[in-house]
Amino acid sequence: MTAEKHIEVQDLRLAYGTKEVIHGISFDIYRNEIFGVIGPAQSAKTSLLRCLNRTIDFSAEATVSGTVKVDGEDVRRVKDLYGLRRKIGMVAPLPVGLPISIYDNVAFAPRCAGMTRNGELDNIVEQCLRQAALWDEVKDRLDSLGTKLSGGQQQRLTIARALSHQPEILCLDEFSIAIDPVTTMRIEDVLKELRKNMTIILVTNLTQQARRLADRTMFLWNGEIIELDSNEVIFSDKTKDKRTYDYVMGIFG
Amino acid sequence: MTVPDSKQPANFSFAVREAHRPAWAVFGERTLTGLIYLCGISAIVFVLSIFVFVFKEAAPVLFGGKFSLAQFLFSTEWYPTSEVNKRYGVLAMIVGTFSVTGVAMVIAVPFGLGAAIYISEFCGPKVKETLKIVIELLAAIPSVVWGFIGLTVMSKLIVQYTGAPVGVNILNGGIILALMSVPIIVSIGEDALKAVPDSFREAGIALGATRWQLIWRVLMPAAKNGLLAAVLLGVGRGVGETMAVLMATGHAVHIPSGILDSVRTLTANIAAELGEAPAGSDHYRVLFLTGVLLFTLTFAVNLIADLIVRGIRKK
Amino acid sequence: MNRDPKTMFTETPLVRSKFRQEAAAKWIFAGMAAAMIVPLLLILGYLVERAWPSLSLGFILDVPIRGMKEGGIWPAFVGTIYLVFISLAVSAPIGILAAVYLNEYAKDNWLNRIINLAVINLAGVPSIVHALFGLGAFVYAAKFGYSIISASLTLAIMTLPVIVASTREALASVPRSFREACWNVGATRWQTIQAIVLPNSISGILTGVILQVSRAAGETAPIMFTGAVFFKAVQKGDLFPYQLHEQCMALSMHLYTISTQVPGVKESIPFATAVVLLGLVLVVNAAAITLRVWLRNRKKW
What we know:
The complex is a heterotrimer of chains A (253), B (315) and C (301).
Chain A: E1 5-16, E2 19-30, E3 34-38, H1 45-52, E4 62-70, E5 73-74, H2 81-87, E6 88-91, H3 102-113, H4 118-131, H5 135-138, H6 151-164, E7 169-173, H7 181-194, E8 199-204, H8 207-213, E9 216-221, E10 224-230, H9 231-234, H10 242-248
Chain B: H1 15-18, H2 23-62, H3 69-74, E1 78-79, E2 87-88, H4 91-122, H5 125-140, H6 143-162, H7 170-194, H8 198-206, H9 211-222, H10 224-240, H11 243-248, H12 266-273, H13 282-314
Antiparallel strand pairs in B: 1-2
Helix pairs in contact in B: 2-13, 4-7, 4-10, 5-7, 6-7, 7-10, 8-9, 10-13, 12-13
Chain C: H1 13-51, H2 57-61, E1 64-65, E2 70-71, H3 74-105, H4 110-124, H5 127-141, H6 148-172, H7 176-184, H8 189-218, H9 221-224, H10 251-261, H11 268-296
Antiparallel strand pairs in C: 1-2
C-alpha cells in the first residue's frame, strides 16, 4: 500500500450549539485505500463526513475547529469550494433520487461544473450508471423520474450521481441501510472495482461489511476514536482496547 | 450473482474536473444572489419606510407646540374644520373602534372557535376539505363588498328586528366584522388544535371521556395559546379594517351609549376625511397621526399574536 | 360485575347518555360552523337576486352614463385589471425572491429574525395606513402624483408579505434531502434552487400569487387616496384607456362611490357592481384552489 496521505484530520472538533459531538480527533486516510468507519448510532459518523466536504456549513448552529486537509489543502481555506465538493463523492444513508429525470440526475453535477456538451454528458451518464450497476435496468427509460425508481435502484442512482463528478474520494454513509442484501452485495463488488481509482471511506453500522471491504477500520464512539488499525487487528482478539473487541463481537453497541 | 455491467473498466477522463463554468454564468449567479439578498431585506425597508413616511407627515403637528398629545388621545372633541375653535380629539373614534371590534369578537370568537373545533374534531375528511375551501373563499370577499352588505342588507334587517332608527351602527359593523374575522380565527384555531398530539386524544378516549370532556378538559387547555393567538389576529383585523366599517357603522363622532348607536372608527375617520383635508394642513397631519396610532396598535397586537404562535411551534 | 358475553357490550343508561352527549356536541359545533356560512350564502343569493335586472355582459362592457346613475362599469373594470397586474408585476418578483432569501439563504441570526418580524407586521398593517404611506411616499415624496403607478405600488407593498408567506410555504415543502444531495455534488445554492427547489415549488408559488390577484382587486382604501378616481370618461370597450401617470377608476372604489356618494343611482346597479366584483374575486380564488388541489394530486415524490 502506498503511504501517501490523501486526507489528514487534525484535532477536529465539532459542536452543534453548545453540545460538542466530535471531541478533537486526528487521523489520516491514505490514497486508494478503503477506510472503514464503524461505531454505534450517534457517534458523529455522518457529521464527520459533512466536515470533509464542508456541507456542515449549511447547519447554521455548527461550529468546527481543527483542520481537515484534502490533498494537503485545508478545506476551510480552499479557493474552489464547489470543486472540493466535486472531488468528494458523497452517498447518503437514505437514497435520494432527485425529482428530475434519471439522465438529469446523473448529468446534474457535470452540468453544475460547467460541462454542457451533450456527447460528453451522454458518455458520463452511461459510464456512471454502468459503474453503479444500474445501466441495464434503466437504459430504456432514462427520461423517467429519479424519484419513481425503487429504493435499491435509487441508492444505486445516488452512487452513480456521486461518481458523475469523477471524485477522488468516495464517501459511503451506511449505504446499505435502505436496500436488500443482494443489491448490497452488487454494490460491494462495484466498490472493489472502484478502489483502483479512488479512496473510499465506508461508514457503516455493519461491522462485517467493514471487515469484508476495508483495509483499515476506525472505531468511533461518542465522537472519539477508540481505535484505528488495519483490519487484521480490529477484527481479531489483538485489539488494544477491549471496547473495540466487544463492539466487533457484538457484545455491546 | 453476475454483475456484467460493473465489469466495465473504469475509464476516468477527469473531464468534469477540468470543466469550468463560463464567466457570464458565474457573474449572473452573483448578481442574482445579490438581488435575492436585497429583496430579503426589503421587508424591513418597507415596514420602516411606512412608519417613517406616515410619521414624517404627522411630525410637524405633533412637535408644533400648539398640539397636545393628551388632548388628542383623551378628548372627544373632533372639530377639524371649525373656523375658530379647531379640536382634534380622537377618543370617540378610539371607543368606536374598540366597541365595534368588541362586538365583532363577542360574535366571532365562539362561532369561529366552534367552527374550528367542528372542522378539526368532528367532521370527515370530505366535509373538512369542503368547509376549508368555503372558508378560504369567505376570506377572499373584498371588504368593500362586506361594507356594501352592511349598508344594504344588514342595516335593513337591523331596523326591521330591533326598531333602531338607523341600521348603520355598532351592531351592524360588529356583525360584518365578525363575519370577516371568522376565516382567520377558524384557520389559526384549527392549526392550533391540529398541533395537539393525537396521543392526548387517544389517552382521553381510552379513559372513557366523552367528546365534550375531551374538548373542554384536554383540547382547550392544550391549544390555549394557539386559540388566543387566533383571537388576537381577529382583533388585529378588526382594528385595522377600513371600508367595511366605513360603510356599515354610520358616521357619528361621539361616545356610543349602546350597540344601536352609530359610531365612527379610527380607520373610517381617516378614509372619510383624508380626501377633504388640504395637504400640509393641521387636519391632514392629525389624520396621519391617527395612522401612526393605528400602526402602533396593530403592530403590538400582531407582535403578541406572533410571539404566542412561535411559542407553540417551539414546543 | 357483568361477565356474560351476550350482555357485556349492551348499552347501559350511562353509555346511552354518553352517546347522546356525543351527538349533541357534534350537532352544536356543526351548527356553529353552519351559522357562519349559511347566512352568508343567503346574503350572496340576495345580492345576485337584486342585481339580476342589470347583470349582463353589456353591463361590464358599457360605460357609466348620466353621472354614474345608469350604464355599465367598463372603466372601473379595466382600471382594476391595470392596478392588479401592475401591482403584482412589482410585488411577485420581490416577494418570491425575498421568500427564497428567507427560506434558502438566511441563517438563524438577529437580522433574519428582524426580517421575519417585519414580514409579519407588514401583513398586519391596516390598509388605510398603507393608503397614508402611499400618499406620503409615492404621491408626494416620489412625485408620482395621483396615478396608476402610485396606487399600484401601494397595492404591491400591501400584497408583498402574503406572497412572501405563501412562497415560503411552497419552498419549505421541498424536502431538505433534495437540497443536501445537490450540495454534495458541488452545486451552488442557486444551482440547487434553480434545478430542484423552484421547479418543484413553482405551482405552490403561483397559487399564492393568483390568490393575491383577488386580494388586490378587492382593496379599496389603499387606492382611494393614491390613484383611484370617482369618474373618468372612457370609450366603451376600450382595452387601453389609461396612461400610467393618470388616475383610473376601479371596481371596488366604484362600488363605494355609487353606493354612498351618488344619490339616485338606479337600484340594481350597485348590486350588480358588487356581484361582478365578488364574482371576479371568487372565480380567481376558485381557480387558484383548483390548481392547488390538482397539483397536490400529482406530486413527484
